[in-house]
Amino acid sequence: MADPEKAEASHGAVTNATSATGPDAAPVGSRTNITFSDQRIQFVSPARPPRAPRAGSTDNAAARPKAPAIPQVLTSEEQSRRQRQQEHEKKHVDIDEHLMAPEEVAAKYSTRINLAKPAESLGLTTQQAEDKLREHGRNVLTPPKKRHPLLKYLDYLTSLFNLLLITYLGAILIAVANINAFIEFYQQRKSQALLESFLNMIPAKCMCLRDGKLAQIEAAQLVPGDVVFVRMGDKTPADVLVFWASDCKVDNSSLTGESEPQERTRENDMQNPLEAHNVLFNSTLVVSGEAYGIVIRTGDATVLGQIAHLTAGEKKVTSPLTVEIGNFVKIIATIAIITALIFFGISFPVNNNNVSLAINFAIGIVSFKAWVPEGLPATVTLLLTIAAKRMAKQNVLVKDLQGVETLGAITMLATDKTGTLTRNQMKVANIWTCGELYEASYGALQEKKVASLDKPGVSEILHISSLCSRAKFDRTDVPVSSREVLGDATETGLIRYAADQLSNFDILAEKFPKVFELPFSSETKWHMTIHQKAHNDGALTLYIKGAPERVWRLCNRVLVGPDGASEPLTDQHKQAYDEVYEQLASRGHRVLGFAQLLLPGDQYPEDFVFDKKEKNYPLGDFVFVGLASLQDPPKHGVREAIGACRAAGIKVIMVTGDHPLTAEAIGRKINLMLGETKAMVAKRTKRPLDQIADNEYKAVVIHGERIDSLTDAEWDSIFMKDEIIFARTSPKHKLEIVRRAQSMGHIVGVTGDGVNDSPALKAADLGIAMNKSGSDVSKEAASMILLDDNFASTVRGIAEGRLIFTNLKKSIKYTISHSMPEVIPNLLYVIVPIPLPLSAILILVIDLGFELIAALSFAWDPPETKEGLMRLPPRKPVTPETTDIFRRRALRRNRAHFDAEAGVVVAPENQTKLQAFLHRLRQLFTKDYWADKFEHTGAEVLVDGSLLSWAYLEIGVLQSVGALTAFFLVLHTRGISMSDARAMQRGAGPPTNYWTRDAQPYNGIDGPAQADILAEAQSMYYWAVMTMQMFNLFACKTRLTLPFGRYMFANRKTFYCILAGASLATFIVYTPGVEVVFGTSRSLLPLYWLVPMAFGCVIIAYATLRMLITRHTNPVKWNPEIPGLQMFPTIRTVLSRSSSQHRPA
């Protein structure tokens, strides 16, 4: 068994050491590897000699959880795709300007820059720009190829179900097929139009220096060599090499997943372009400062363009519902073809070898009109459309109708962290001052100390946060919660917290004006300000904040009490500082240090003039005030949403580009990770890591460095764990994770909002993008968009998806139940023979009339129980056994075989399409194929054996008996017994001389009377099928409860649909003049209705008995309870709100 955490110990040691160097030196989430080589530390497990097992050790094969025996099977398409991807990577790894001096880059692109005075740079000439524009093209991404609307319509028209309808060349069925296609096409076009309204944004503008003049131009006109100017609030228009910057920070979260703003300077010492400090990437937001740079890549050549290319190369996965409907169509088509052959063989001699009549009867009436439920495609499409509209009201846009059900079928949900699970907003979490560690605010069930103004040191930290800052609110005339902050995420978090705590925050800057400032820089790692704030010894106060270790080194005293009371630093203080710092950093928090100095009035009078050049300001002997930690908090409702997903049996994994410690810390707050990792078990049991058995831990945190080197067995072992986090991942890694999960049989959903998520969004079975925070590329790649960016909407979508699958299954179960009452009378008509109880036109009226209307009522059926659907396991659970079955079938499809001794999959090379087709054909006649086909996988499919048995062998036969009873009752009442009917149908010549208006008399019944009697009997048969289907409608509604009681009245639209269907049937049977078209009779007495109603009661009784038996033989399997799930809301409690109202000023 492979060990999925073989490098966890060394990895944990390195990351903890990194955290101890301070957030500014190595901010959380500062590195992400894509496809570029770098020189970072590689977390490789040291080689160990094999050890003998200890006595009583659980580290053995029997104790470990099972894993699939067959490794991943790669199709020929997958192999060629991987080869193309490798070639593409080699072709595009060409960014090396970050390693060059700005002068060299300027010379390379024939542009002119001024390093000392960047605003006086000349840039390119207008002629140069025009020439380069013709050479390189516009600075836009190549839009994805789109199929013409007509071709899309033809795709829907030529679906398997519609082809089955068109096979019978009847004008009505062709019209039905076109209606089915139009409904699906129209819904898809509506969703696409709404999406395009999101993507069609105003063309971006940018500031560019050309011919020495700074002007605003369209970003699309930029070319390599242009000199651009960006400042806070701008989006970077291309990939830019920085040659001058002032406090410039960019938000790379949409590109790399890093939640912390990244500083950009002229200097760089990183090899990896994505980690370079002197490169601004296309589409990233400048959150503070300003910079001048040289454009080095435009359009598809940018990093953003390369990721978009990776996305475009992905093929959309066929949805599970599409596959299952296709399988159902194949079943129906097989039954129809077999029936056609049988009926042709029977009707040919019966009809005196009349070939034409036999073929028309076998193919036209029986095989297609009776077996194929013509209204089912429209029913399925309308059910999905209604569900999609319901989801749209909950802010979930469905681009593909099949995606509605796919969301309910997912077995694994892979989600990004930044912006999806978290708010991408830094928030103060802890404060440590005067030797006490405080929580920043109240939380649910919290018993720890909470910071308040009456606690010593807290006021000082709040004042430093407020005054020693470049961030500010956009306005002051609205509540703090309604204001926007201009500044980077860290300072935003600090001043929001300070503004919440300080009642006089808005006047602090005026009350204590700033007289001097040294802004944050990468060299000092701190920010200093001096204010006119009086104290007992003078009029000026110095504040400083920054990287804790840098601030600590500038201090010789530490704050210990109120009113600035301090004492000299000691080893005890240093030890306490180290412990708290390590504790906060290990939670994945960003930690800042705070210090102050009450400037003595004799040295620094109130009118003292500070000068940066003369450095006549203090640079040491400060008083250390304390530490504050910030975190990117989870979004409201995320914890409950993930808990609900896990309770529903869905494996939720985090795939993020952020730091492993940060990812795990967030995961443990939101129900994503509850159990122990291997390192935690080793620490708890005080055993070495190599003695921890694979079954002793259920949680893993995998670093992106290891993904490329994982073996097939290690991948399988990882996915068998309950709780998984992948950190420091690249877009390529996310793709690999999705494909590896799909190779095990998982139906994978991927949520994300960044450009880096888009390849995985498209490759997944269901991609879910965010609307507000999502990039255009991610929205285009996804199948579903959360319009309000609320991850909790995913849970509602899953419940809706499961409900629509349940309702679809009930609708199909109901719809195809009438096939037997349509087939059996035709069979008797040929074999016995008897008069035809149901004409071809009435078959179509059943399918496209009452049945279609009644089947639609299932779309509004609520769940049978409040939480029942979300307590059931996924309908296609993934286990080692099911994975082996899934891969065994993949082996068969790809003409491959598994070499058990070598442990590898051997696939044939360079097989032609003809060879592949012949292989599939030969498989149909092998024992293994059919054994595989009927092997139980524990999966619930749309059309299973139980449903077919109900529709064709149980209720279908019962309805046939009931309808035939009513049919012969009408004949008997009108003077024609069953034997008379058989004799009349046999007739005196082919095919018969009776039952028509010009027929010869029979026992005194003339031709017109015979035709009227048959029309009345056929009307009764039609009415009987409709009536019994009304009862069957209720019998098909329940799965967990009995088919009577309150649930039968939960959906009022059921009764509206029954009324509409019955009205249509009444119109067809009893409306004068209509009987000529449909061959019905207005003389049908309502007394005959009692027969089908009695059989309807038998159907309800049979359904009840069947369900009671099923409960004992095959009880419903609920998901086991997951210990430790925290399902309380992720919002502040009433206690915190009430306490904030009594906050001291």
Automatic annotation (TrEMBL):
Any single biological process term in GO: intracellular sodium ion homeostasis
Keywords attached to this entry: ATP-binding, Cell membrane, Membrane, Nucleotide-binding, Translocase, Transmembrane, Transmembrane helix
DNA-binding among keywords: no
Skewed-composition ranges (Polar residues): 30-42
Keyword Cytoplasm belongs to the record: no
Xref: SMART domains: Cation_ATPase_N (SM00831)
Compartments, record wording: Cell membrane
Membrane disposition: Multi-pass membrane protein
Residues covered by region (Disordered): 1-91
Signal sequence annotation: none
Protein name: Cation-transporting P-type ATPase N-terminal domain-containing protein
Species of provenance: Thermothielavioides terrestris (strain ATCC 38088 / NRRL 8126) (Thielavia terrestris)
Phylogenetic classification of the source organism: Eukaryota, Fungi, Dikarya, Ascomycota, Pezizomycotina
